[in-house]
Amino acid sequence: VDDYNMVNFIPLDLRKESSIQYVLSNIDNCIQYGEDADVKVRDFIPEDDD
Q1: The total number of structural domains that make up the chain
Q2: Which domain holds residue 17?
Q3: Which residue did the predictor score with more confidence, 47 or 17?
Protein backbone atom coordinates (compact mmCIF):
# COMPACT_ATOMS: atom_id res chain seq x y z
CA VAL A 1 0.00 0.00 0.00
CA ASP A 2 2.80 2.44 0.85
CA ASP A 3 4.63 1.74 -2.40
CA TYR A 4 1.67 2.67 -4.60
CA ASN A 5 0.16 5.64 -2.73
CA MET A 6 -3.18 3.90 -2.35
CA VAL A 7 -3.93 5.68 0.93
CA ASN A 8 -4.39 9.40 1.27
CA PHE A 9 -5.40 11.30 4.40
CA ILE A 10 -7.25 14.58 4.08
CA PRO A 11 -7.88 16.83 7.08
CA LEU A 12 -11.53 17.53 7.82
CA ASP A 13 -12.90 20.32 9.96
CA LEU A 14 -16.66 19.94 10.28
CA ARG A 15 -17.01 23.59 11.26
CA LYS A 16 -15.65 24.84 7.92
CA GLU A 17 -17.71 24.46 4.78
CA SER A 18 -14.61 24.82 2.60
CA SER A 19 -13.04 21.81 4.33
CA ILE A 20 -16.14 19.71 3.65
CA GLN A 21 -16.21 20.82 0.01
CA TYR A 22 -12.54 19.90 -0.38
CA VAL A 23 -13.12 16.41 0.99
CA LEU A 24 -16.20 15.91 -1.20
CA SER A 25 -14.34 17.03 -4.31
CA ASN A 26 -11.57 14.54 -3.55
CA ILE A 27 -14.16 11.78 -3.12
CA ASP A 28 -15.80 12.73 -6.42
CA ASN A 29 -12.42 12.67 -8.12
CA CYS A 30 -11.57 9.24 -6.68
CA ILE A 31 -14.82 7.62 -7.72
CA GLN A 32 -14.93 9.67 -10.94
CA TYR A 33 -18.42 10.91 -10.20
CA GLY A 34 -20.06 12.59 -13.17
CA GLU A 35 -17.46 11.43 -15.67
CA ASP A 36 -20.02 9.54 -17.73
CA ALA A 37 -22.64 12.28 -17.53
CA ASP A 38 -23.85 13.70 -20.82
CA VAL A 39 -22.87 17.26 -21.54
CA LYS A 40 -25.89 19.48 -22.06
CA VAL A 41 -25.33 22.05 -24.78
CA ARG A 42 -27.78 24.90 -24.91
CA ASP A 43 -28.19 26.96 -28.04
CA PHE A 44 -28.48 30.64 -27.35
CA ILE A 45 -28.65 33.84 -29.30
CA PRO A 46 -26.00 36.32 -28.17
CA GLU A 47 -27.36 39.70 -27.16
CA ASP A 48 -26.53 42.67 -29.35
CA ASP A 49 -24.79 45.58 -27.66
CA ASP A 50 -26.52 48.15 -29.90
Answers
A1: 1
A2: 10-35
A3: 17
- Cα separation of 22 and 16, whole Å? 10
The string of pLDDT tens digits covering residues 11-37 is 999 999 999 999 999 988 888 777 777
- 25: nearest Cα among 33, 36, 37, 16: 33
Closest by CA position to 28, among listed 39, 17, 36, 16: 36
Residue 18 belongs to some domain of the structure: yes
Q: How far is CA 17 from CA 11, 26, 28, 40, in A?
A: 13, 14, 16, 28
pLDDT value of position 40: 72
